[in-house]
């Protein structure tokens, strides 16, 4: 198996950590490290940056200096793994604000090139989206059609050329089912080992 350059993006907005999504990221990282993959990690909750407030700022503003290392890590990576909890049916606002900042024109896409989104400048990278939630994952996937994850995959990652994109939906995390939690941690270790 070839080793990969993997970037873990922890999108939980609580800087204290300790949530199940943090444990899943740790398990993935442990599996990937054991397999010899190169790893970097971004903890969005520890970063200080403003939210974008206009299209002009997104298109012509400058990347906040605090986010330059994160953008560099995205450029370095061959595979991105995003971890976040489902909040009010979507990713937390802090994570969306982070992605809006780092996935700017000129880095993620070149709007001057022909086509609806221009040249997709992050092509050649793959991704996995790991989402934790209180509801059963099947309810989110089939009743709600995983709408917010699909939006992230199509409208943010896909527009930059990232693909394929796989998802891992971890539901009912508030239930005290130690066997289920252990199984999820082992699954994430396995994904990490494979660099998937």
Notes on the protein architecture:
It is globular, with a radius of gyration of 17 Å. The model has no long low-confidence stretch (mean pLDDT 93). Strand 4 and strand 5 (119-120) form a beta hairpin. It has a five-stranded parallel β-sheet with strand order 2-1-3-6-7, sandwiched between helices. It is α/β, with parallel strands linked by helices and 196 residues long. It contains seven helices and seven strands, in the order E-H-E-H-H-E-H-E-E-E-H-H-E-H. 38% of the residues lie in helices and 18% in strands. The protein has one domain (5-194): 3-Layer(aba) Sandwich (Rossmann fold).
Element layout with pairings:
Layout: E1 5-10, H1 20-34, E2 38-43, H2 55-60, H3 68-76, E3 79-85, H4 93-102, E4 109-110, E5 119-120, E6 126-132, H5 137-143, H6 147-157, E7 165-170, H7 178-194
Parallel strand pairs: 1-2, 1-3, 3-6, 6-7
Antiparallel strand pairs: 4-5
Helix pairs in contact: 1-7
């Amino acid at each position: 198996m070839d080793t990969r350059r993997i970037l873990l993006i922890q999108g939980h907005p609580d800087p204290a950590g300790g949530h199940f999504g943090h444990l899943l990221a740790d398990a993935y990282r442990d599996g990937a490290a054991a397999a010899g993959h190169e790893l970097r990690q971004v903890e969005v909750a520890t970063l200080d940056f403003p939210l974008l407030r206009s299209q002009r700022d997104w298109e012509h503003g400058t990347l906040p200096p605090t986010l330059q290392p994160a953008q560099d890590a995205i450029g370095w990576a061959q595979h991105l793994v995003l971890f976040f909890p489902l909040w009010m049916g979507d990713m937390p606002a802090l994570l969306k604000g982070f992605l809006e900042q780092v996935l700017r024109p000129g880095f993620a896409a070149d709007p001057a090139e022909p086509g609806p989104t221009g040249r997709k400048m992050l092509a050649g990278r793959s991704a996995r989206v790991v989402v934790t939630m209180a509801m059963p994952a099947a309810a989110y996937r089939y009743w709600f059609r995983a709408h917010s994850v699909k939006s992230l995959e199509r409208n943010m990652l896909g527009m930059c050329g990232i693909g394929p994109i796989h998802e891992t939906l971890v539901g009912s995390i508030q239930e005290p089912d130690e066997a289920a939690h252990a199984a999820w941690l082992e699954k994430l270790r396995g994904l990490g080992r494979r660099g998937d």
